[in-house]
Amino acid sequence: MGRAVGIIGVGQTHHGRRTEMSYPDLVREAVVRVFDDAGLTPADIDGVVSGTMPSMMEGIALTHFYFADAMQAVGKPILKTETCGSTGVSIAQTAYYWVASGMADCVLAVGHEKMNEGNAQATMTTVVEPFYQRYFIAGAPGVFSMQSQMWADRYGIPEDKIRDAAAYISVTHHDSAFDNPYAHVKLRVSMDDVKNARLITYPVRLLDVCPTSDGACALIFASEEFIRKIGKKAAWVKGVGYRGEEYFFGDSDKGVWQSAVQSAKQAYDQAGITNPRKELDVAEVYNPFTFQEMLFYECFGFCGFGESPDLVLKGIFNRKGELPCDPSGGVLCTNPIGATGLIRVAETVLQVMGKAGDHQIPGAKLALSHAMGGVDQFNGVMIVGSEL
Amino acid sequence: MSKRVAIVSVAQNAGAESADNFYDQAYRVAREALDKAGLTREELGTVVTASSDIFHGGISCANSYYWETTGAFLKNASRQDGESLFAFFYGVMRILSGQYDTALVMALCKGSENPPNDACTLMFADPFYQRPVGLTETTAAALQMRLYMEKYGVTREQCAKVAVKNLDNARRNPYAHRKGDYTVEAVLNSGMLADPLTELEAAPKSEGMVALVLATEEKAKKLTDKPVWFKGYGSSLDAFFLGDRDLLNGQLGNAAARAYKMAGIGDPGKQIDLAEVTEPYAFQELMWYEDLGFCGRGEGGKFLDSGATAANGSLPVNVSGGVLANNPYVSRGLQRIVEATLQIRGEAGQRQVDKQVKTALAHGTHGFAGQCHAVAIIGS
Amino acid sequence: MAKEYKTLMTEIRLPYEISYGATWTRFFEGMAEKKIYGTKCGRCNRVLVPARSFCPRCFVDTTDWVEAGQQGTLTAWSYVSYRYFGMPTEPPFISALLRLDGTDVDFLHMMGGFDMSDFEQTRKIVKNGMKLRAVWKDERQGHILDIKYFEPA
């Protein structure tokens, strides 16, 4: 695993439609907050990792230039990590490796997106293969609908049950967002509201889908030695996993999603986790679509394949359940994509440090964060714990 | 560094336009790097790539597209944007973490498919202030060049001589895109781009799939009898607004100092045997000599005139022809490492220098007038 | 609700010219002749469609050209009822993954050939595992939309 690495600061913007602010100022909001939280100054930082979605999203390329000042990165070593939707978790993993390798002692990681400045769906379409596939993939909803539909069919899950379970996830996550001061969408919805919402791509309806958010998130990673020296509490990185599959949608099975299964397994092996549902106290699963969240529960070993809808409806994964998932309200309520994966990591850091405020899971010690990206291709997982 | 990381194989394709598609071109170079290392895809530990969406054929989330072409199916892989030396360093980091014993580092750019370079570099500028007034890498470089000449009395002829040297060196590099036996007059008369820059003083737009395999010391000894060792790395980022920066004293000194410290280099002019630098504009090579400590401030022109940086000089720079000969934007930093590796291994063919190369420097830069620099030191 | 603040409207268009390369050139020449080509991996023996120059998993060159069936089995589908940039036709339409006969990966295209204006009616017709066949345009130009759609067989 290399050197022990801890996370000692969290900063995130108030996510939402932030048209009152320029993009660099939005990034700065998260960076100022992470320095406040960690009690450090930019002089303490040995390197900066930044990342976002592709240039087409906001119409600016190589954004590490644009945010050099906002990130206090002038004169610093920089890395720029981008892996589509999984960018946030990939940024966190880059910062982790930078410290674990001994090449830096203290690294600032920043993820950002100002989606309301561009056309998110048109941008996603430019991710897809241009000769064969671009026409037919109806952006993210199209891909994920097909995947959910493939999965439900594989395990013979009745349509009504899966619809109810997805609606339950929507209702509970929307409720949770009220307890997260940084969440974007704050809306009370009922099961019927979700089930009767406008159809986007069957089976996905409007309230099954994440919003278009502006936001940024920043974390500070440091070595054990650095953390001991400044006498700070840390969330320790226990495991990192990442896997990717082929670009051509159709080449690999999405019903048992190997990149999700194996990325979690890599992280579990490093963290020594054998029974995730029992050992993990909380999970922040990347869930832009309610239906897909259930597939992740299964791929991550929280339950067997085809079992998640029943367990969701029993409340196993809600905030008072056996393994609370997305107590922050999750991606379903907040999705500034380039920051989203990093927000998942940030939320788990807050949980194991006992700093999650109104959405704190009492006594949380070990937590999983996750992000997904590409054309239904990439999954990345990070596990943090309160003890080294 | 307690542990050592080695380069065990390198591969690249030619810079001129090719009828191949991106996907196939990338696969072939990745395949070649693995074959030369004697590694199967299954044995490969991890993959780190570099690319840039805007230099990527109009396809976003670049590594989604080429994931399997780099052998990364169901592997833990990641990507760096903009500068391929970032990916090199990240590959090194992954190996030093102890989690992987081999890494494929690859940079991917197919210039022939892309808009003109400056249509892309204009997109680095903010949409409010700098983009509407047309800031590109070329216009920024032209401003920098004039400042440089005026402050230090460097002549246009001295700047043009960089192009003469590098395009001549390129004649011995089978991968070079642009090459030729030009005179200073020919370079100066090659057509005005943005005064004082002429066309032959600015880099072309090239293909560049560039790959190398990294390994731990233990693994490297099994894979090759000519390992080339990672010695040091440094990078540094400048402020965003052009007007906030000192264009004659940028971040390269900072980046180099970090790399030299890690590599234990106190006197770069003596300890470095050969350098491959990224000089998208001819005069910048002279400035980089100074920032890298090869000569004194303002003396880049004289240093070139002395013949020190010629292929048979005491410190050859850009024996490959450099970026003026081959400019696959994102890939050019990694291409510098590949060229330096070939020189250290004595495998550079017709462009192999006569002197023995033990320690070499590779440099990458991207952005306006050297907005971000990265420096890597490798050695036998 | 946040107030609306001053914003700059701007649009970016960049020209790209993307090579087909030898393998995909041949695939699209086949389309003009109403043929769907795949390539076979000599190591894992999978037939990949559309044709690929190499096998993503074995990481070796593919060895043989194979003509895929014009019929296949539906693997997954999505009823698309919203508009997006670059869509192939007006909504609603059905985006579909299907396993063409004689191939080992799923091929992405769309379904058609029946009235799909009413979702509940459509849902009764479209089932995973159903057989589909390609319907070609009369005028073909070597493009993925030379196949109009796949209809129930």
Textual characterization of the structure:
The complex is a heterotrimer of chains A (388), B (380) and C (153). Chain A has a single domain, classed as Thiolase/Chalcone synthase (Peroxisomal Thiolase, Chain A, domain 1, 3-Layer(aba) Sandwich). Chain A is 36% helix and 18% strand. In chain A, the strands form 2 sheets. Chain A has a 9-stranded mixed β-sheet with strand order 3-2-4-7-1-8-11-10-9. Chain A has helices at residues 23-38, 63-66, 87-100, 120-125, 139-154, 159-177, 191-195, 224-230, 258-271, 276-279, 290-299, 308-313, 330-333, 337-352; strands at 5-12, 47-51, 78-80, 106-114, 199-201, 204-205, 214-223, 235-244, 282-284, 366-373, 378-385. Chain B is of the alpha/beta class and 380 residues long. Chain B has a domain at 5-115 and 205-223: Thiolase/Chalcone synthase (Peroxisomal Thiolase, Chain A, domain 1). Chain B is built from 14 helices and 11 strands. In chain B, helix 3 crosses helix 14 and helix 6 crosses helix 11. Helices cover 12% and strands 31% of the residues of chain C. Chain C has helices at 21-32, 119-125; strands at 37-41, 47-48, 62-67, 71-80, 93-100, 107-111, 131-136, 147-152. The longest helix of chain C has 12 residues, at 21-32. Chains in contact: A-B, A-C, B-C. Chains A and B meet through helix 2, strand 3, helix 3, strand 8 and helix 9 of A and helix 2, strand 3, helix 3, strand 8 and helix 9 of B.
Distance between the termini of chain C: 52 Å
Uncertain stretches of 5 or more adjacent residues of chain A: none
Number of strands of chain A: 11
Shape of chain A: globular
What number is the mean pLDDT of chain C? 92
- Biggest sheet strand order of chain A reads 3-2-4-7-1-8-11-10-9
Helical stretch tally of chain C? 2
Can you tell me the number of structural domains of chain A? 1
Listing every helix as H and every strand as E from the N terminus to the C terminus, the arrangement of chain A reads: EHEHEHEHHHHEEEHEHHEHHHHEE
Helix share of residues of chain C?
Answer: 10-25%
Query: Which percent band covers the strand fraction of chain A?
Result: 15-25%
Gross morphology of chain C is globular
- The low-confidence parts of chain C are none
Radius of gyration of chain A: 19 Å
Keywords:
heterotrimer, A: 388 residues, alpha/beta, Peroxisomal Thiolase, Chain A, domain 1, nine-stranded mixed sheet, two-stranded antiparallel ribbon, C: 153 residues, mainly beta, 8 strands
